[in-house]
Amino acid sequence: MEGSSTPLTQNSSTFAIGIHPNDQLPSCFLVAGWEDALDRGDPFESALSSMVSSPVAPPLAAGEGDDAVMIRELIGRLGSICDSGQTSPGSYNNSAANTSCYNTPLNSPPKLSLSMADQHVRGGGGGGGFPAPGCHFPGHPPFVPVMADPGFAHRAARFSSFGARNVNVANLNSGLGLNASEFPGKQGNMLDSGRFCRVPSSRSLKANDGSQICVQGNDRIFLQSGISASTPENGEMGDSREGSSISDQVAHGEMHARGQIDVNSRKRKSIPKGKARESVASPQSAKDSEVATENEEQMTKKIKPAEADGNEKDTVNGDQKQSKESSKPPEPPKDYIHVRARRGQATDSHSLAERVRREKISQKMKALQDLVPGCNKVTGKAMMLDEIINYVQSLQRQVEFLSMKMATLNPRMDFNLEAFLSKDILHPRGPLPDSLYPVDSSGSMSYGYEPRQGLMPMLSVVSSNMDTQFPADLLNSGIHRNASLNLPVMDNYGEAPAPGQALWEDDLQSVVQMGLGQNESHRIEQGSLDAGQMKIEL
Amino acid sequence: MKNPQRSPTNPGSVRSRFTQVFLQSLLRIRKHSPASSSSSSSLGEFLKRCHRVKVAAYVSMARAAGTRRAWSRAMLWRVRHDAHRHRLLQGRCSRSSSRERSPGKKKRRTKKKKKRRDDQEHGFGNAEKLQKLVPGGEAMDFSCLLDETAHYIKCLVTQVKVMRSIADFYSL
């Protein structure tokens, strides 16, 4: 309870006092002792609750809603009345009279009591016009005995449920106590007029001027715009209520809830921003999507279902933040998945994927460059690819040639696997020349081989030559290619080698003079056998 | 005899495996080849044997490389298919059996289709050639093609080395 709400305290005290008819309260209605009532708000509340817990008539529950509302309104009015200096002179005079008949309303049936209560409120409103400082209640008698009316007790308990509304309750009771006598004739008015304004918080009432409060017989005046102007706290709670002042009688809870909603909306608006930032951070920190825009999209997806208020704004902010963060750090793509757009580059998903692809291809091209000899000097992907193609072709030709050689060797082979393996595999002979293949003109090649078959010696020679001679340059040159291309493939078996010679280039003719079919011979020539070496006759 | 290094891309392991398989195949060929000492053994026979040796070399290489590589799988498949087709040409098998080789045909179809798409890659012209060179290269995109090419080159180099060593060993 705000200590500043002195009149509220007064109201509360009046309420308490009003409840206690036996006390000589008329002069004490507006008593500074209301502060005490405020202090005792809790005990008052507890008292009320105890009263409620007491065997209160359950049938009151049916009409309780309206009654509670009206009572709340009355309390509010009381509070406002007390705040304002406005007083209905008559009410004051009647205060004493009211007290006397205070019991009756309390003892009357709930509805009546409510009407009485309303009237009392009005009276209290008038009485509330009493100078607040002037009013001072004596020490409140315990409120418990006052609640003779079970319905009243129930309502009072309801009122007490509202934190600040204890004051309202007090106000109400003060009104009750004040103008009990005035109201009997006006019972119906308050009751029937369902246009009781909601009872704003006591604080709102407190700020009201008396002019607003002079409610006697006029409910509408009760909650006027002036009420809403009051404290900032009221702005929170009271705005929603006051906006619906006249029209709402429905549960106070609605207004309260609305106020809560307003508060919550504000809170929630702050929350989504935080969440947006969190979601922005999370995808970045935890996992960078392949595309920055994808990150943004993910963020929006996360945010939207999370919050309903201000989502778009937050996501926009988040997106902007995301895009900035994504575009700033020029991080290279670490992985196929974790890719971030570099600074100054397009953040389109397609472009990012394309960039990733290109970088992968470039990496592989570099790896190939290490494999393929002679690629170091070549730059550019097209040239690299050409080199790679040539190299693969040369390797394949070598394999064919070697297979051919083995075919000739096959009958002669006595496979001593162990020896062979131990000897050759572990210590492979003949390093494959990775450098350019100089044509070795060493003629001391296996001339001693007995030509069991026309091919074998040549094969051996060729193989020995091929150990060191793989002319990439020759391969690159059109000579070999042309020769190889021109040669028929595996068709002219029966031809003598001599005719095949015609197909060879000059440097290859010697190679061809072996009786090999053109097919193999042109492959053999690829080994760039020196002309002088291959002069082997069948 | 297995090399302790299990990596198929490790030339040492590949080499040892290839050597082993290849020699075995050579032995097989030798047994199957007609024992002829005459030089008149036609070139046809010789060429056939050469072809067999070559095929054996490639098959052994593919096996040594392992089926993890696309090119090795493609090579094995191609050899199988070519052998089958060869038999078809010889009239041994009916045409129905050729239809059983649907996966092969599918592969060829996919090769044609993929070729067009790879044209969009940079170096498109050369990519086609490379696809033809590398077994099974037509059925993959450019980046995979480069990977396969790299591995294929490694294996080819190993193969050539081994074969040369064998040839030298026995030619001496």
Automatic annotation (TrEMBL), chain A:
Residues 298-338 have a biased composition (Basic and acidic residues). It comes from the Eukaryota. GO terms for cellular component: nucleus. CDD domains: bHLH_AtBPE_like (cd18919). One of its GO terms (molecular function) is DNA binding. Keywords: DNA-binding, Nucleus, Transcription, Transcription regulation. Residues 345-395 form the BHLH domain. It is found in: Nucleus. Residues 255-355 are annotated as: Disordered. The keyword Transmembrane helix does not apply. InterPro entries: bHLH_dom (IPR011598), bHLH_ZIP_TF (IPR024097), HLH_DNA-bd_sf (IPR036638). This is Transcription factor bHLH77-like isoform X2. The gene is LOC115757201.
TrEMBL record, chain B:
It is found in: Nucleus. It holds the Pfam family IBH1_N. Residues 104-116 have a biased composition (Basic residues). It comes from Rhodamnia argentea. Residues 88-130 are annotated as: Disordered. The keyword Nucleus applies. The gene is LOC115753382. It comes from the Eukaryota. Keywords: Nucleus, Transcription, Transcription regulation. InterPro entries: bHLH_AtIBH1-like, HLH_DNA-bd_sf, IBH1-like, IBH1_N. CDD domains: bHLH_AtIBH1_like. Residues 15-81 form the IBH1-like N-terminal domain. This is Transcription factor IBH1-like isoform X2.
